[in-house]
Amino acid sequence: MTGPLRVGDCLCSRLIQVNALHRYRDVVATGPTSPKIFAVLDDEENFLGMVDERQAALFPSRIFADLIVRRVPAPVLATDSLEQALARLEHEKADYLPVVDQDGKMLGAISHSSLVVGLLQAERATLEERESLINQLEAELNHHRIAASVFDTTSEGILVTDAKASIVLVNRAFENVTGYRFEEVRGHRPALLQSGIHDTEFYAKFWSALQDKGAWQGEIWNKRKNGETYPEWLHVNAVRDTSGVTTHYVGIFSDISAHKEVQERLHQMAYFDNLTGLPNRQLFLDRLERVIARCQRNETGVSLLFIDLDRFKNINDSLGHGFGDQVLIQAANKMREIIRDADTIARLGGDEFTILIEDGGNEQAAEKVASKVIETLGDHFSIAGREVFVSASIGISRYPTDGTDAESLLKNADLAMYQAKESGRSVYQFFKPDMNEKLTERFDLEDGIRHGIDKNQFWLAYQPQLRLSDGQVTGVEVLLRWQHPEMGEIPPAKFIPIAEDCGLINMLGQWVVRRAAEQISELEGLVEKHDFRLAVNFSPAQLAEKTIEEIISAIQLCQKSAVVELEITESTLMTGDKLALGFFEALAHAGVQVSVDDFGTGYSNLANLRRLPIHRLKVDRSFVQDLESDEASRQIVTAIINMAHCLGMKVVAEGVETSGQAQILGGLDCDEVQGYLYSRPLPMDQFHTFLKRHGH
Ligand code: C2E
Ligand code: CA
Ligand code: CA
After folding, report:
1. CB count in 10 Å sphere of residue 61
2. Is residue 482 situated within a structural domain?
């Protein structure tokens, strides 16, 4: 081997490169049988990111571009040293780093395990090389010819002594490693290099092996001229003449201090998560397998909780990765506190955690831990003087009912977790056999949304908002509708959360605003531009740096015909993060109004309410519904209206269905109303008619 191992020697063998527009489904149909990680490239072969197989297999019909969750790590050079690469892996807490050549062309990727494999292979290669070197030297020494070239070109240190163990020759590598020049050691015994670390017994064994077998190899600590001790891998052979008398000893060694250090760090990393200190996926799987084996013997059970933080990507995107890391650390600590010593908690990667409960497969015990986890994580997190709210969704699988091996237990807990997310987040779900089908249905919906826009399956409904005092139509809320060719009308409550999860909400949100701009212009002459509001729903998932400008420019198209108001839920308003604050400033600057949707159902921080440029509160339908029958609801609505008026905001009550409700709202001084009592959401032409009937 020449020179130390480089990053380029340790590429992941499990990596395949895929085009960003391809889908896992199609890639596995044609590609190698068991790829484990995908490098996603665009058409120009630019590297976009990594996707691991588990994630890809969960969403077989998504394009790879949509599967990338981590920011793209900067590449390492193939010629970088392993220490450099390792430092990057540790520092960035990355599972993989892309590797490029001098020209920036992608060669592959490295991971902790590919580094280990590279090192092990190199070590094996070195051993073989050493073996052949010795054979070669032996032959040459026997002929009393020592080829200087072999000596000086190898990176292994070589030292030759006579039969009395006096040094007769060393090569350049010896000089480099030990710091001694040949002249300084000639005629001395190799004991000159002894570190003092090994006892006399060690050297006694060494010499007896040389005498009996004619050879010794092993790790030995020596001392350089500068006093520094270091480990080397040494291989010594006795050279005998034809009559069997030892004439020389040849020692060949390499300095393995660098390897050793790397190996130790790799070992630690191989089993523990760097960020949280929790066991990692590997260690967790090991333990799970052991627990399963024990359960099998004792005929008992175990429960596996798969925990995934909700909308963690939003936190990362809006508050930065450093902040996201702190959230993960706190989440890990909070969970660690509530489980028993006997249970195992691990971080599988990203925002995914697992807990293994040795509860004998008792459903109630697993339920108890799951609700405790949801409860503790639901408490606010306080990080760097800022409060954030985190929630988690949990899937539970049990041995032996839901699987009898580690892989299937994990997979089924994961499936159950997806189901938990779907049924509204911040809940837990036990695995059920039909979940697989449901997941497929969900992927079909995702694909459906993607194509639905191109195929004109979406349309907009308009629901009027009226002033209570005089019945004047003051605005309209735009509501998205999806007419699916086979499944019929799909309600937004079903497809909006999916679009939010898979990132399609940006595309949909854009479409809504642009389409509304076209349609609202048809109202020219019927409404007064400065006196008529177009209310558009805005999802928190649309709050990403690069889409904000696009949204505002689309909104400006609507502003030609109406005042635009964005309906935003409390949680988005209350994050208080920089991105959101910047967005609100930009909205105010563009003359866009803001209303708080579903008010009363989330957390509100009054200080934020006052600080933000909010024009309107929309009292949630659930309070309006109970106005006539429930005193508490009436009091809540009264309080909301009074508070809003004190803060200079207007109040819209939504979901007004009866004249009784309208009457009470009037008495409470509510400003505006919206609901079936006045009109259902209407297609544009019918809304047109509605306006005319109401004196426009
Ligand atoms: P939302 O913003 O709270 O919208 C009001 C919902 O209440 C609408 O349901 C509307 O049809 C319904 N509604 C209005 N008046 C009454 C009433 O008197 N009684 C009852 N029972 N319901 C009434 P819809 O259209 O099914 O929308 C559901 C949710 O989907 C919306 O809740 C909103 O969060 C979301 N959504 C709809 N369109 C969009 C959109 O373009 N973008 C985004 N991000 N979300 C949307
Ligand atoms: Ca709304
Ligand atoms: Ca609402």
Report:
1. 14
2. yes
| Full-model pTM | 0.55
Contact 561, 524 (CB under 8 A): yes
Do 427 and 466 lie in one domain? The reply is no
Q: Which atom of ligand 1 is nearest to the CA of 479?
A: 38
Res 611: pLDDT:
80
- Number of folded domains that form the chain: 4
Tell me the C-alpha distance between 303 and 345, whole Å.
Answer: 12
Q: Compute the residue count for the chain.
A: 696
Q: Whose CA is nearest to atom 7 of ligand 1?
A: 655
93 and 177 in a single domain? The answer is: no
Q: Which residue has the higher pLDDT, 400 or 576?
A: 400
Measured from the CA of 656, which atom of ligand 1 is nearest?
Answer: 18
The ligand that comes nearest to the alpha carbon of residue 674 is 1
pLDDT tens per residue across span 615-662: 999 999 999 999 999 998 999 999 999 999 998 999 999 999 999 999
- Out of 227, 261, 295, a domain closes at 261
**Per DSSP, what are the bridge partners of residue 399?**
302
Distance 587 CA to ligand 3 centre (A): 20
CA of 467 to the centre of ligand 3 (A): 17
Q: Would 147 be classed as within a structural domain?
A: no
Query: Measured from the CB, is residue 480 less than 6 Å from ligand 1?
Result: yes
> What CA–CA distance (Å, rounded) separates 36 from 16?
8
CB 492 near ligand 1, within 6 Å: yes
Q: Say how many Å lie between the CA of residue 536 and the centre of ligand 2.
A: 7
- pLDDT band, very low/low/confident/very high, at 135 (cuts 50, 70, 90): confident
